[in-house]
Amino acid sequence: MENEESRMSWIKTAANQFHGLMGTRSAYMEQQLRSIASWHSPDMTTFELVLRQHDPWYMR
Hints:
Blueprint: H1 4-24, H2 26-38, H3 46-53
Helix pairs in contact: 1-2
C-alpha cells in the first residue's frame, strides 16, 4: 500500500475491528494475542527478549 491515504484507512479499519473484538470477544482475542506472543525467532534481539520477560501474557 504505497498510497498513504489508503494505508491509513486500512489501519483505521483494522484498529476499529480490533477494538470492537476486544469489547465483545475479549477472551478469544486475549488467547489469540497469547498465541502470537509465543511465536519467536532464535535470533531475537536482547531488547525483544527483555520485553518478553516483562510481558504478563508470555507463557514461561
